[in-house]
Amino acid sequence: MPTVAPYGSWRSPISAADLVTSGHPVEGGTYVGEQIWWSELRPSEKGRYAIRRMDGGEPVDVLPAPWNARTRVHEYGGGAWTATADGTLIFAEFTDQRLYRLDPGSDEPVAITPAPPQPCAWRYAELQLRGDEVLCVRERHDGDGISRDIAAVPIDSSAAADDTAIRSLVAGSHFLAYPRVSPDGRRLAWIAWEHPNMPWDGTELRVAELDADGRAGAWRVLAGEKDESVLQPEWDGDGHLFVISDRTGFWNLYRVDAEHEELDALCPMAADFGGPLWQLGSAWYRVLPDRKLLTVRTVGTDTLAILDVTTGTLTDLDLGIGALGRTGLGPLRDGRALLVVGSASAPAGLREADLASGALTDVRLSVDAVPDAGYLPAAELMTFPGPSGDVHAVVYQPHNADFAAPEGELPPYVAFVHGGPTAHVGPALSLVTAFFTSRGIGVVDVNYGGSTGYGRAYRERLKGQWGVVDVQDTAAAVRGLAERGLADPDRLAIEGGSAGGWTVLAALTTTNGGPPANEGVAGGGSFACGVSYFGVAELIQFAAETHDFESRYLDGLIGPLPEARELYERRAPVNNVDGLSCPVLLLQGLDDPIVPPSQAERFRDALVAKGLPHAYRAYEGESHGFRKAETIIDSREAELSFYGQVFGFEPADIPRLELWRP
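Request: output the structure for the sequence above.
Response:
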C-alpha cells in the first residue's frame, strides 16, 4: 500500500549523486578496426571527455586521464577526434586546443599542431582523416580578429613547430562547415555563411576544383542563400552531391548535379530531415550502397528510415524502443549503423542497429543503471493552444510506486525550457526528470515557438519575438496543464539554461505583473518561482561580451543594433525587475564564454536592490553547461530545496538552500 504524503515530499531512490555516479553522457562513436570507440563525458573526472572502447565487456580508456578530447571552435565544438583503422587517435585537447596524435600502445600523445601565440587561440574541429592528413575546420583568434578556413594538417607532427606545414584549402567566408572531398579527389564541397545569419537561417553549398596542391580554386554556389538553410553535403559515387535544404519550409533531402547545378527533391514532405547546426559535423543521414540513404526525420519525435533514392520510397525502421528522442547518426559498416539514440523507455546511449531488421545492440549507454520502473514517469506528447498557434510539449506526471498524494491535492509542476532557442526535446528516459517526478513534482518539457522539428515557420515564430513568443508558449503549456486538472495553478515553476534561462527570467518579469512596455506579455502570474542556469539577463552588454558565433544572433531574435537598441533595453529581464514578485535561483559557471557571469551577477544585483528572496550559486571551473560531478549534485539539490521552500514542502534527504532575504 503506497504511503500517502504531499507532492514534493516523497522519498526517492534517485539522488542527485546518482545523476553523476551513474550518468556519463555518450556522444558519437566510430568503428576502429574490429572495435567501436566513442566519446564519453566523465563528471567524476572533472568533466573531461574521454575516448573509450570495450575490453572484455568493460569500458576502458583509449585516451587516458587527464587528456580531454573537446574542441572550442564556435565554442560548441563538434568533431573533436578521429581515428585510423589501426588505432591511431587524433584529437583536439581542450586545455590548449592543439591537435595531438596518440599512437597504438602509447600513453603519451604528441602534438601535431603548433602552440598558438595566445592560449587556445588556434582551434580545430570536424576532424576527418584523408590519407596522411587531417581535414578540418580551423579557427584562429589573432590580433586582427577571428578567421576560419578549411585546412589540412599532416599527422606526422611536421606542423607541430611550423604553422606553414598546415595547408589552407579554402577560406573566404566567416563560417565554414562540412568539408567534403569528392571520391576522385578533384573537387571540394562545403557549407559557408556570414554574419548575421545563423546556420539555420541561411547558408550556401559551395563547390570548387582542387589544384595540384589540394587547394580550392574559384567556387560555385550550388544551393542556399540568406533565407535558405542547406546542410550536410555528401558525395555519391558518380559525382553528384546529396544535401539537406529547407527551401520548401522543411529540411528535406535533395540530390545535386554538381556540373549543371540542378537540385532534385528526393522525398518531399512536411518533416525535418535536418536540425540546428550547433555542433560541427552533425549528421542527419548517411549514404548507403545501392543508391539508398539512412535518414532521421523529425515531426515532434524522430523516425529512422531508409530512403531509396531511385524511387523516393521511404521505409521506416522499428527499433523496438518506442518513439525516439534526439537521434544521432554515426558511421556505417556491413549493413549496421552506430546510433546515439534513446526513448522514453530506453536510456540514451550508443547502440548498433542492424539495418535489415532494426534490431539494436547496446554498445555503451549514458547511464550505468536504470531505476526501477516504479520510479520512472511516462512521457506524454501534448499540444496546447497558444497566442501564436499550437505549442508542443512532453509531459511527465509525478510517479513513485511507494507514494500517493492526499486526495484532492494537485502536484506542483516545473516547465523545462530548452536552450538554443532553436533546440528540440523529444520523449526521453531522463534521470534528471525522474529526480523530480519521483518526488512528486511534475515536469513539462516545452518545444516553444522557435524550436526545431516542426518546420521553418514554427522556428521563425521567434523571429524578432525572443522574450515574447517563448514566454507566451511556456505560460500556455503550464496553464493548459492546470486547466486539464493535472497541475496546481498556484505551484508552477519554470527552469531553463542559456537561452532557456533567458526565457525563465523574461517569464518571471513579464508574466507576473510585468510592465505594459513589454508588449503586453501577460500570463496572470503563471509562475511562482524560477531557476536560471547560466541564462541571459541583459542584451546590450551580452551582444558585446558573448563569443563570435552568436555575436549577431540577436539580430534575428530581437533586431539589429543600433537600430533596435530601445527594444533590447525594453526586453531585457534585468530592466524589468519591477515586474518581478517571486523568488529566483541563479546558477552560473564562472568560466562561461558564451553567457558570461556578469549576466547572472547583474540580475542578482537587481534582486538585491528590490529586496527579493533569491540565491546565486557560482561554480569555479565550469563553462557553458555543467560537467563536474560536484557542480551537478550541488545545483540539482539546490534547485529541489528551492522548490520546496517556495511550494511549501520539505524534500527528503536534501540540504537546505539558504536564500538571501532583506
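Residues 512-524 have pLDDT under 50 and may be disordered.
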